[in-house]
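EI: anyone free to look at a 322-residue chain?
SC: sure, send it
EI:
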Amino acid sequence: MKPTALLLIGLVSLVGCGFDEASSPTPPILPHDTDAGPVESDATPQQMQPPVPDPLAASVCTDSVAVQGTALAGASVVVFGGATHISTDANPVTGRFCLDVPLVKSSVNTLRIHAQDPILGMSDPVTRTVTHSGNCGDDVTNPTPDPPKSKNVALGATGKASEVADEGNEGFLTDGDDKTFARYSGGNAWFAFNGWVYIKLDKVYSLDKIVVRWADPNGDYGAQYKVMVSSMSDPGDPNTKNGYWTNVADITSGDGGVDSFDLKSSKPIAQYVALYLEQDGDSWTWTETFSIAEIEVWDSPASTPTSPTTQSNTCASMGSGS
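SC: here you go
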């Protein structure tokens, strides 16, 4: 039989068996690229949200202005600008806050309002401008006040330490008398002590300098220690890794006497000041020992002094905003 006839017979057989292109099985659809890897998430790290201040008057005659509004419940609210920096804690339930912010007289005051949280950090600022009017109907010409001076705001501040003092107590750290002292010890001469002391100021200050006065020149001083600050309302114990404390000085070869740290360029904001103690100046004794006579914290004075207002533009007169 001829080849052409065989081919025709084969085609007829296929048709007879019901072969149809439309009825053929469909192959599975495979992904275009099996090596594409995981799909990236659009999620972004959570950030601290700025506070939402209530409207402020553009111009006031009072020496301070009540800044109130709403922030994350329980967060700290810090206002930079005006005659000084000031902070408070937002209501732990409603998030409402109010601060009486002192103003620089006869000037335009630019207020930068932040919210701060131990985990989320400090928010971007919300800026408000308030002008202190120099013409408030007072015809009496007051004498020009003396320029403000920096002061030791640590006097009488409350102290705390990681160890019970071998001699003295934390009250001696801020009593203004460098003849009294508190002595702390721990660890041995081959390992760092990693103890600490801190003082809590009565409010948040912008700092000009910190001075540490050591009581004993014979090894009972900080040869290695850190000076740390925090503006948080409750930063916990001084810690180099928890993010609540900021190093402003790291001493690696201290020699006792008086250590003074100039902070005019950075002006850190703080309510807590700590010494994180590591090693003393005497490597021949078994115990690391630190004798601290005084911790001085000098504030950065406002450009123009102000007196407390007696007028009604205050948080108290407004019900504190809570």
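EI: Helices lie at 3-16.
SC: 👍
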